[in-house]
Specification:
five-stranded mixed beta sheet
Length: 364
């Protein structure tokens, strides 16, 4: 509008200039489906007017613009909108058809000042969206050691933040000291939003075995993890704890009342004592007891087969000395005790692991 002042001077109303807007992406790392994206908008108005912002975020398989400006790879309706300075949204896993994976987000920011002038052009941002790789963690069934020829379970916890654990395929490979072989998944159970898978390794050679799992999602993105299992020969069982304490060689343990002599703990790869329940491959120790009576020269087998034997002084004369002996055995027939009968202890391996224990007991 043109106005005429009384002094004859001309003036015009100030022209309302358009504002400008800008986008800053606060999420600077690789963006995956299902991930939170944070954006902030800025606005500048030459007239100093307040600027209202309007955000829209569209899910796309491909956000490439065509010559006419359309983006056919994007949904028509936004998945998120906002009129605040900050714009946050979760990237959906799929486009609005529920089938097509999201490969990009197309974001628009428009601004209009208090005088009605709109920013021209508005700002746009294309955010590439990746397919998050599966998560994978391996564990081996805990044992004191792993024995050649005895199956062992390997476990894998599998997840996928955007495809879901149930859509992940897992391939197992066992690398032996001399070659490789495929393994099959023989157990699957849900663990929250993840899955626990298991496979069985049968190490038929001594040495280091490497079990590798490759988890692959429907888009072909994969994660690989490996775990080692050292297969060894079955070691002899070891007497670990017993009661009462055996006296030093040449000395006697006096007892004046019925006393239980027992083995409390045997350590062994496959046949420990006490027995371990819930594992079909593990057994338990076999006990052989013998007794050298007063004045005797050899140990005579007794019928006890458990982990303990009781001696009662009432069955003897005061001052009688007997030797009570226990020997332990596992499933390996090669673990035969060959020490002389006069030896109170015996170690098949010639080390601190013993398979024979003798109590020299004096009756009182």
């Amino acid at each position: 509008m043109i106005a005429i002042a009384s002094a004859g001077c001309f003036y015009t109303d100030p022209i309302n200039q358009r504002p400008s807007v800008g986008i800053e992406q606060l999420t600077v790392s690789q963006v995956f489906r299902g991930q939170l994206v944070n954006l902030t908008g800025s606005a500048d108005d030459p007239n100093g007017d307040e600027v209202d912002l309007q955000w829209h975020g569209f899910a796309c398989s491909d956000a490439t613009a065509q010559p006419d400006g359309t983006r056919p790879g994007c949904d028509q309706a936004p998945v998120a909108s906002s009129d605040t300075k900050q714009f946050s949204f979760d990237v959906p896993d799929y486009r609005q058809d529920g089938v097509t994976p999201v490969g990009a987000m197309f974001v628009t920011l428009d601004g209009t000042d208090s005088g009605g002038a709109a920013a021209k052009p508005g700002q746009t941002l294309v955010i590439p969206v990746g397919d998050a790789p599966p998560t994978l963690a391996l564990a081996v069934e805990p044992r004191p050691s792993y024995v050649e020829g005895i199956p062992v379970s390997i476990y894998a916890k599998v997840g996928d933040p955007d495809d879901g654990a149930s859509n992940v395929a897992v391939a197992w490979t066992a690398f032996s000291p001399t070659g490789s072989e495929s393994l099959m998944t023989d157990q699957t159970e849900p663990v929250g939003s993840d899955l626990q898978l298991a496979t069985t390794l049968l190490p038929d050679q001594y040495g280091v075995w490497t079990v590798q799992a490759v988890a692959t999602d429907p888009s072909g993105v994969s994660t690989t993890q490996s775990i080692d299992v050292v297969a060894a020969a079955d070691a002899p069982p070891c007497l670990t704890t017993w009661s009462p304490i055996a006296p030093p060689p040449g000395e006697s343990l006096p007892i004046s009342m019925a006393t239980l002599f027992e083995v409390l703990v045997v350590t062994d790869d496959l046949d420990p004592y006490p027995a371990v329940t819930g594992n079909s491959y593990l057994g338990t120790t076999t006990f052989s007891w013998s007794l050298m009576p007063p004045g005797g020269t050899t140990h005579e087998p007794i019928s006890a087969t458990g982990a303990g034997v009781a001696l009662d002084p009432a069955s003897y004369q005061p001052g009688d000395i007997v030797e009570l002996r226990v020997e332990i055995h596992d499933r390996d027939p090669d673990h035969t005790i060959t020490c002389d009968d006069s030896d109170p202890t015996c170690s098949i391996g010639g080390n601190s692991c013993i398979q024979r224990l003798t109590w020299r007991v004096e009756m009182q």
